[in-house]
């Protein structure tokens, strides 16, 4: 499938898969998050992918963000069962894509912090160095690299060492394309404090990398972060703009989907060519992106 922008000037990604699954009634209070449905109710994942394509998304991102070999083995699965569940995440997205009449499937490669399930994906505070991260990622990477996905979505990367590990994995699989998307903590830096510009330089000129950018980031930081990216096509898919009130145990500051769509037009004008949503965004956010860019 082509990774070229369509008539809107961008490729429109989907939104928060787990967010929509929860809206459909799924209980995702689990270390595996949406990946637990690969074991329990894969039909709901298929339904969520269908809904995002119907809303105007060009790209479905698979439910493999937290679906690592190690995570499934921690649940009692043996290696070949874990591999089959990761393959299933791609098969579901491919089925939804084909039913919709076209589009792309991006196989999600979540960070090591997602496996830890302790918030480290937003800090980059890891107990593994670059070599350890390379070894941890490799089993799932090999499964997804051999799948029918169109490319790998290396996303919510909070650590420079993890980015270096991913660069090495790309070298090992020269026939695989990917986007690389970092978690930004402000308008210039990723979660561990490394300047985004330095992280992006790891992938500059790499023909396997279709885009570099940010996700799981506050919308207010996106334009500034786009300004840090000069070498590769740019991808952005921020959160809705809400913040979690731990005392009241609720989300506050809902970003209106229409406002999100209007912001997407600004991100496109600033240089982004892949645009979508991350946590707390819905099919309606994607519908508004297409309406504002169309």
Automatic annotation (TrEMBL):
The keyword Metal-binding applies. One of its GO terms (biological process) is methylation. Transmembrane segments: none annotated. It comes from the Bacteria. InterPro entries: BHMT-like, HCY_dom, HCY_dom_sf, Hcy_S-methyltransferase. Zn(2+) binds at residues 216, 278-279. Residues 1-293 form the Hcy-binding domain. Keywords: Metal-binding, Methyltransferase, Transferase, Zinc. Gene3D superfamilies: Homocysteine-binding-like domain. Binds 1 zinc ion per subunit. GO terms for molecular function: S-adenosylmethionine-homocysteine S-methyltransferase activity; zinc ion binding. Its cofactor is Zn(2+). The keyword Metal-binding applies. NCBIfam families: PRK09485.1 (NF007020). This is S-methylmethionine:homocysteine methyltransferase. It comes from Sphaerisporangium album.
